[in-house]
Request: fold
Amino acid sequence: MANEPLNDSELVQRAQEGDRDALGVVLQAQYQRVFAVCYRMLGDRSSAEDQSQEALLRIARGITTFEGNSTFGTWCHRVATTTCLDELRRQRRRLLTTSLTQDDDSDLEISDDVDITTSIEWSDVRADIRSALDAIPIEFARAVVMRDVLELDYVDIAELSGIALGTVKSRISRGRALLAELLGGNRDGDVERLTNGDEQ
Reply:
């Protein structure tokens, strides 16, 4: 009797044990998910492709560290998000280094605390909403962006941010309220999408 195909968890286990064929199947299965994350965060197809490959390399190298505390897909999602955040930090450092060279201002500092709200491609979000997101505390802006722009679910946001689920909901609620305040209420569909999202 022919061998039955392996399920996802069995493939991951085989990959963790050094089975290169299983690893190839696992990486291929995760590529579209990883690329979608990178494209939404970077907004540029070429950059997204480059960082998708980097994320897959990190997944391959670190697969033995996956302990099954979340689904493998969520773990890959986290690796892809971290990879993109690292790239955004590098981009920010390059910009700040250029600024330092041009302005010769020794008081400027380069921060590792990248603000993802200024780095995503916002083709469908109004400029005043972007400005409002920049004006509110970063922890609230990030929570709103992850939920309403990147469309992550609450559990994924909690896992990716390393905070409790209740804190995620609180930050999103507070962030939306602050945005509504700054924008003078829900004046169109974009504002409504970012300030009156679903409550779980």
Observations:
- Residues 72-103 form the longest helix (32 residues).
